[in-house]
Design a protein that fits this description.
Chain lengths: 951, 240
């Protein structure tokens, strides 16, 4: 048997054993399904022993054994030495031996004696691939010749055994496969759970069946709630409906799904952009589909993109992007300006949206357009000139700068194109040169130093101005961030470094102010650094660039400004008028010291309160003042410089104030500055002034009377002289004449007495006229007066002595002159003044007066317009010197020796108070004419005045 | 009607009263006549000048004229009378306290002045003095009934006497007097001389006592006369 054993091929042994182990048949307990087949072998072949043998590496195992003696029946196995079927396995052929004792291959086998084998028939058991695993054997203890029928029967039964074994093997294989599957699924789930990305599954209807731990944690919803529809509650409310709808539409359509969705992150409550991708899976079972989905946080990327797009949108240059097919995926407003319309995104292929031409006007085929060329040839094009026709028919020439975009593997994914409008290229080019020049000049003039810093290489690029700012005569070779920091004064370093880190992480842009110590002179200067981050394709900051400039002077100016502001404030504090600053809502923002003392509120009490606190405003003062600001539409406007309002002090008392409000702007806000003046004192002063004026009028009349004293003295002396002389004459006559003859003097005495009495009356009248004039009090009492009577009366006073001085006086009134509404005494005072002036102008210098000189004083009155009456007093005096004429009506200007110089100024104020005007003009024939106007009495009042006169 | 007569002749010496005011004219004429002085009245200086040639050398003993008159006023009348070598005394009437006019008139040749209103004694004394005034024909002789009060001898001294009295004044008193004659009030004088008004009053009282005058008018009269005394041709007036 050894030889047969040697025939077993190792490769077959391995496959055989693996199959047997897989099927789990070795050492399997006896099973009826196999025993049933070996019993069939016993019965059909009428043999005492039937065996189902499986050949292991070093033994043969009896899966079923019937008719074997002990111990083999219980052991169910024998060493390979006892095996006859080895040769069957080795050859793969059936073995039929009538008497093993006579067979040279088998007669030494110990099994002949141990098992009592004489006749032996075996059929191999082979797997479908030909690998023989054992044999089905029939054994007789008698020698016998196996018939063909017996051999065929055993072969059939071997086939049945094999079917049974194959079923088991399949089952076992399936179980093993299932176990493997379970194992790998658990591993996969574990993997998914530790994945930092969102992963989920759904069934064919789109109902979520699984979410990984990251997803559940990201949205802060337990996985159990996420399945089904719970996930949608984390979607941004604005996106939710659309997302759910589009997802279910995709799921039912079975197409791959992709969407950008804002999901709420539980850790900070922020909505972040998540790119969801889902793909349908074909299950092994084939019963419908389900989905696997992932979510990628693209928020940072998206924000960077948005920032970039905003930047692009803000550029003056037109920019648009296309996908690889040339469909427009993005464009900015400048592009719209050139195109003249808004092509629909992801639909319009730019090359098909235009009629375009070469610069010479010949049509440009679309495949020749710069963008088409750039996409086709995958190369950038710099400045191809194109003329396009807009939808409105206008033509726009521009230069195109398309650049293809490639992904990391170099595959074109689209292109970006910059369009530069060359409508006015000459101008633009000139302007460009200019603006470059200007930029340079501006940088120079602005003392702006450009700098750029590469985060990876830590190399810096900078202008020479920066060297100068930092105090270097020649550029130092080793500019670096560290060197920059070394210049920064220690107190500012922390701030600068923090700002740098913030900027390098893309979080924040400068400006930063800091102090640096210059090289060389070591002077500390203030600089301001503006910076901006440049992002690489991975969204990380790669470079920083910006400008810096020396702001030491500005800092000084600011300090000076603050100082002067403080000074201004202190000045304002000393302004005697109360100053209040309030905003457009009437809220007090500032309250000066004068305001504190005026209102009794401290600044602390007043600030933040409404103006209404100060302006009780029953007449709407507060609203007028505050609302006036809204009407002005930003135009500077003072709300009246003389608005009089009622103010309220802290103690509740009220008083009149005058408010002037001006507008100011600070930090883009409108503020109003109100100056408030206490009118209490001014009103008191006005009352005093009025009293003084009245007194002055009175005094001036006294003064006029005083100036006329000489004239009055003469006027009175005449009757007095006559009286005294006449009476004394009478006394003498009575004394000298004999009393016995009373007749003789009686006529003369009577004449004398009559004369005296008559002259006494005359004197009395003069005195009464003077007293009436002087004694009038200061109150103005306007009545309807007859101007003619008024002038005559004034003339009777003023013209005293005129005749004696040889002055010819004429008085003329226009017939039917209307009465005037005046204060009689005051107007008489004016007339008296003017008449006396005229008289004195003609006669005051007695030494120089010449008898031949014409002395004429004329007083006239006539109508002047509808409502006024004009009175003129003219003389033939020497006239007015020009230098006096100008100041004639000022106080304390006089041409008369001893004159007070108050007369004409009082006259003018009296006439002014009556609503008239007083002026002077020279006469062509010499002398001057003073004219004044007075308001005529209204007809109804004039009628009242006239009626008593008629009675 | 009693007429004044020149001692050397029988010519009736008449006072010619000139005033534009009819009542004043009539009243003065009544007063003079009641004192036995012949008086004639004229409504203006012009009217008097017109009748003057007919009066003859002695036709007018004295002229009494108002200063303030329309047309020809007192000053002008004095000038015209000087032109005509009118030798009789001219007494002028001024408003009370109008010292400057009085001074001006006397400097223009008036013999004396009276201030309106006047009492009969003052007028008659002045007229009497004027009639008896410094004429070459000797001291005037008053008509009967015209009593010359003793003090009038003092108040109508001749020029030499006047000059002597003025010379007795202190310099400050002279200053005060000059300012008074310019018509200035005590207060004004005090201001101009940097004195207190009270001091001016003291000076004024003292100078009046030294001059022997009782009124400012008398003091002025004296001062004007004294001024004539100091001039060589004063006796001849301003006759050319």
């Amino acid at each position: 048997m050894r030889g047969a054993a040697e025939d077993l091929r190792d490769a077959d042994t391995g496959r055989r054993v693996a199959a047997l182990r897989t099927a789990g048949l070795l050492d399997a307990p006896p099973e009826e399904r196999f025993d049933r087949l070996t019993r069939l072998v016993q019965g059909l072949l009428r043999v005492p022993v039937a065996l189902l043998t499986l050949l292991d590496v070093d033994r043969q195992f009896f899966l079923s054994a019937l008719g074997l003696p002990e111990p083999w029946a219980s052991l169910r196995e024998t060493p390979l030495t006892h095996s006859f079927c080895r040769s069957v396995v080795a050859t793969g052929l059936p073995l039929s031996v009538a008497d093993v004792r006579k067979d040279p291959r088998l007669r030494d086998n110990p099994a002949i004696e141990d098992l009592g084998v004489v006749a032996y028939l075996a059929e191999p058991l082979a797997l479908p691939d030909g690998c023989v695993i054992g044999a089905l054997c029939a054994i007789d203890r008698e020698a016998r010749a196996w018939t063909v029928e017996e051999r065929r029967a055993l072969a059939d039964l071997a086939g049945a055994v094999m079917a049974e074994i194959m079923a088991e093997l399949r089952l076992r294989e399936l179980e093993a496969a299932s176990a493997t599957l379970r194992d790998s699924e658990a591993r996969y789930n574990a993997l998914l759970d530790v994945s930092p990305q969102i992963v989920w599954f759904s069934d064919a209807e789109g109902h979520c069946t699984y979410v990984n731990r990251h997803y559940a944690e990201f949205v802060g919803i337990p996985a159990e709630q996420m399945t089904g529809g719970g996930w949608s509650s984390a979607v941004h409310p604005a996106d939710r409906d659309a997302v759910v709808k589009s997802w279910h539409a995709a799921a039912s359509g079975g197409k791959a799904y992709q969407a950008e969705v804002r999901m709420r992150r539980a850790s900070d409550g922020a909505y972040r952009w998540i790119l969801f991708r889902a793909a349908p899976l074909c299950a092994a079972s084939g019963d419908g589909e389900h989905w696997i989905g992932v979510g990628i946080d693209i928020d940072d990327n998206k924000r960077a993109t948005e920032t970039l797009q905003r930047l692009i949108a803000a550029l003056g240059v037109a920019v648009y992007t296309t996908d690889a097919a040339g469909r427009i995926t993005y464009y900015n407003e400048a592009a719209v300006a050139i195109w003249g319309w808004r092509p629909p995104l992801a639909d319009a292929r730019w090359v098909e949206s235009w009629r375009i031409f070469w610069p010479d006007g010949t049509p440009m085929p679309h495949e020749e357009s710069p963008m088409a060329v750039a996409l086709r040839e995958n190369r950038p094009i710099h400045g191809q000139e194109v003329v396009a026709v807009r939808p409105d028919g206008s033509r726009v020439p521009f230069n195109a700068y398309p650049t293809p975009l490639r992904d990391k593997s170099g595959v074109p994914i689209g292109a970006v194109n910059a369009l530069v409008d060359t409508t006015r290229r000459k101008d633009a080019e000139a302007a460009l040169v200019q603006s470059e020049k200007r930029l340079r000049l501006a940088l120079e003039a602005g003392q702006l130093a450009f700098w750029e810093f590469d985060l990876a290489t830590r190399r810096t690029i900078h202008g020479e101005l920066q060297d100068r700012i930092f105090g270097y005569e020649a550029p130092p070779p080793d500019w670096s961030f560290e060197k920059f920091i070394a210049h920064v004064v220690p107190e500012d370093r922390e701030t600068v470094e923090r700002r740098y880190r913030e900027m390098a992480s893309g979080r924040l842009n400068w400006p930063t102010e800091c102090r640096i110590r210059r090289a060389g002179d070591g002077e500390v200067r203030w600089i301001e650094v503006y910076g901006q981050a440049v992002y690489g394709p991975d969204g990380l900051v790669t470079r920083l660039f910006g400008v810096l400039h020396d702001i030491t002077d500005r800092k000084r100016t600011e300090a000076a400004l603050r100082e002067s502001e403080a000074r201004l404030r202190s000045i304002l504090e000393t302004v005697p008028d109360a100053m209040i600053v309030f905003d457009e809502n009437g809220i007090i923002e500032s309250f000066s010291a004068a305001a504190e003392s005026l209102f009794g509120h401290s600044a602390k009490e007043a600030i933040g309160k409404d103006l209404a606190m100060l302006l009780p405003g029953q007449d709407g003062d507060r609203n007028d003042i505050v609302l006036a600001g809204y009407d002005s539409r930003g135009e500077r406007r003072a709300i009246g410089t003389g608005r009089v309002a009622v103010g309220r002090r802290k103690d509740g008392s009220t008083f009149d104030i005058e408010i002037a409000v001006g507008e100011a702007r600070a930090d883009g806000r409108r503020l109003f500055t109100g100056f408030l003046r206490d009118l209490t004192e001014r009103q008191a002063a006005e009352v005093r002034l009025q009293e003084l004026q009245a007194q002055l009028l009175h005094v001036s009349r006294l003064s006029a009377a005083g100036e006329m004293a000489t004239a009055f003295a003469h006027e009175l002396n005449q009757p007095l002289t006559a009286i005294t002389s006449a009476i004394q004459a009478a006394q003498r006559m009575l004394a000298a004449a004999p009393p016995v003859d009373p007749r003789a003097p009686v006529g003369e005495v009577r004449d004398a007495m009559d004369l005296a009495a008559e002259q006494a009356l005359r004197a009395g009248q003069i005195v009464r006229r003077i007293r009436n004039f002087v004694a009038a009090d200061g109150d103005s009492d306007k009545r309807v007066e007859d101007l003619c009577g008024l002038i005559e009366e004034a003339g009777s006073l003023g013209l005293v002595g005129a005749r004696e001085r040889g002055v010819h006086v004429s008085v003329r009134f226009e017939p039917g002159l209307r009465p005037v509404l005046v204060d009689r005494i005051q107007i008489q005072q004016v007339l008296l003044n003017l008449i006396r002036n005229a008289l004195e102008a003609m006669t005051w210098d007695g030494d120089r007066e010449t008898p031949g000189r014409r002395r004429e004083l004329a007083v006239t009155a006539c109508s002047a317009g509808r409502d006024m009456v004009e009175v003129a007093v003219s003389d033939t005096g020497p006239g007015l010197a020009p230098e006096v004429a100008d100041r004639l009506f000022s106080s304390f200007v006089s041409t008369k020796p001893g004159g007070m110089g108050m007369g004409l100024s009082i006259c003018r104020s009296i006439i002014g108070a009556h609503g008239g005007r007083l002026w002077v003009e020279g006469n062509p024939s010499g002398g001057v004419t003073f004219r004044f106007t007075l308001p005529a009495a209204p007809p109804e009042e004039a009628a009242l005045w006239e009626s008593p006169m008629e009675t | 009607m009693t007429k004044s007569r020149d001692p050397d002749s029988d010519v009736v010496r008449t006072v010619h009263v000139i005033d534009d005011d009819d009542a004043v004219r009539r009243a003065i004429a009544m007063l003079l006549r009641s004192a036995g002085i012949s008086a004639e009245t004229h409504a203006s200086g012009q009217a008097f000048l017109e009748v003057l040639p007919a009066l003859g050398a002695d036709g007018a003993a004295c002229v009494l004229t108002d200063m303030r008159m329309p047309g020809l006023d007192g000053m002008e009348l004095l000038r015209r009378l000087q032109e005509r070598s009118f030798r009789r005394p001219v007494v002028v009437m001024t408003a009370h306290g109008d010292i400057p006019t009085a001074v001006r008139a006397m400097k223009a040749g008036a013999a004396d002045f009276v201030e309106k209103p006047f009492n009969d004694a003052a007028l008659l004394a002045t007229i009497g003095a004027a009639l008896a005034g410094p004429t070459p024909s000797g001291p005037p002789e008053l008509a009967d009934g015209v009593r010359t009060p003793g003090r009038h001898a003092d108040s109508h001294p001749d020029a030499a006497e006047a000059a002597a009295r003025i010379a007795a004044l202190s310099p400050r008193e002279r200053e005060v007097l000059n300012l008074l004659m310019a018509g200035k009030a005590n207060k004004t004088i005090a201001r101009e001389l940097s004195l207190s008004p009270r001091t001016v009053e003291v000076h004024r009282a003292r100078l009046m006592a030294r001059l022997g005058t009782e009124s400012l008018a008398e003091a002025v009269r004296l001062a004007v006369r004294a001024e004539f005394a100091s001039r060589p041709d004063s006796d001849e007036g301003q006759a050319p």
